[in-house]
Write a structure and sequence with these properties.
4% of the residues lie in helices and 41% in strands. With 154 residues, it is mostly beta strands. The protein is globular and about 55 Å long.
């Protein structure tokens, strides 16, 4: 459940519904029943994680197996889906990044629109970083860091 721009988004198994806080609009199911490409969500009974407003016209609906981009009426707006590399426990959004937390990792996705060829133009402004987490309560160092391989700087 989340409150975004005076709208309440409620997630449940196999769906999301948007409610107006002021009650001036009827509830809207964010998985449009006429969009047949979304039928597998109900069939598989995927659990809802969170809904994210990408823009005034686009939402990202995050489920237990994937993330889907839909328009404000619940129709798919992009053919691309976000696939989680591990089963997520939670997800949160800090524009333009979606962080998906699992038992052993945090996966960060940039949800900005892609170029025509499917790539994301970062304009060389962002540095790729690899961060290792460890359990402070474990006492000694439990994780194994792989040796650095590559020709760039550490």
């Amino acid at each position: 459940m989340g409150l975004l721009n005076e709208r309440l988004y409620v997630g449940y198994q196999a769906g999301f519904t948007r409610y107006s806080v002021h009650g001036d609009q009827p509830p809207v199911s964010l998985l449009h029943p006429d969009d047949q490409t979304l039928g597998f969500i109900a069939a598989d009974g995927l659990d809802a994680l969170c809904a994210v407003e990408i823009s005034s016209k686009e939402l990202l609906l995050c489920f237990s197996a994937l993330g889907l981009y839909v328009d404000s009426h619940g129709r798919r707006s992009r053919q691309q889906e976000l696939m989680w590399p591990a089963v997520p426990n939670a997800a949160c959004f800090n524009a333009p990044y979606l962080s998906v937390y699992s038992e052993s990792a945090v996966d960060v996705f940039d949800v900005r629109p892609l170029n025509v060829d499917g790539s994301l133009n970062l304009l060389g402004l962002e540095t790729v970083r690899l961060i290792y987490f460890r359990n402070k309560m474990a006492g000694k160092r439990a994780e194994k860091t792989p040796p650095f391989c590559g020709t760039g700087n550490r």
